Every structure is written in C-alpha cells, then in structure tokens.
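Thought: the user wants the 3D structure for the chain below. I'll pass the sequence to the structure tool as-is, report back what it returns, then summarize two notable features.
Action: structure_tool
Action Input:
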Amino acid sequence: MTVKPPHARSRLPQVNYNVVLVEEVAGTEVCWLLITSLPIDTPTQIEQVISYYVARWQIAVYFHVLKSGCNVEEIQLEAMHRVKSCLAFYKIIAWRILYLTHLNRVCPTLPCDAAFDEAEWQAVWQVVKQQAPPKRAPSLGVFMKLLTELGGYNNRPGEPPPGPRVIWVSLRRMLDITLAWQPF
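Observation:
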C-alpha cells in the first residue's frame, strides 16, 4: 500500500506500507487489518507482525492500569526522585494485576499460594465464605472467584473471566482485610 502526502505538503515523499489481514475463524469474529513497515514476504515474518500487535495490546492494558487504576497522572509530589520512586512502586502493582489476570486465565488449577501469601488468601476466604479457611490453599481459579467478589465481579454463567479493573479493586480490598486479619 502506498500513501501519498496531502496536497498541502506535496513535497513530502510517498510512504510504502505492508498490510496484513488477520481473521480468527474459531469461535470469535475478530478481524484485524494491520499496517506495518516491517517485511511480510514469508509466513514467519507475517507471524512476527501479528505477535508484535498482540504484545502491543498487553502493553496498552498495562498503561491503562497505570493510568486509571493507579492514577499515576494524579501524583502530586514535589521532588522528582519521589515521583520516580512512586512510579516504580506503581509499575510493580500494575504488573502484578496483569500477571494475576493472565494466571487466572491460563492456569487456574495452580495453587493460589503460588501468587498470594497465606494471610491474604485465608483472610479473603474467611470474609467472603464466612467460614474457616481450608488447611490447604485452594486453586487459583477458586480463589480468584472469591477475591473478585470483593471487587464486584458476579461470576455469572457465560461471563468472561474478571479483567484488570476488577482485580485492581479486589486487591485493594484484600489488603485492608489482610491487615485486619493479621495479629498485631
């Protein structure tokens, strides 16, 4: 595909792009039209362009969590070193939210204590189920359903798994519950 410059800037050169049409046929009706300057002469090169786009989406979600979940644009610290320290902390939080979102979707049978402290999962279990926690940690899938109830997730049949926003709210509530759960 060749893109010509606008008439008002006709001195600019034409730009050549490659176009990749991606259609998902199994179950969903996803259709992407990817425009790139990367080569697409072989199937491997085309797969590389698609993998870059898929990664780009995760990066966009990460920055959405930083901006809306962590409210990094609202940070009002006077010294730049404090702003940088705060941002470093929030980057870790945003990463954890995306990591938990991903783990919940790809390996829900993993024990939840692989991602949560004992005090965290036991406190959430006690509050949500209103019963003593089990001796062994439940699976991540079971625990994430309990945890995300704290963030407003309804877990209706056919509903997609909880996303980063629900997990963000749930983790904030879990922190308060865990602090109250632990002895002084």
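Final Answer: Structure generated. Strands lie at 2-3, 15-16, 18-23, 31-36. The helical segments are 43-69, 80-106, 118-129, 140-149, 164-181.
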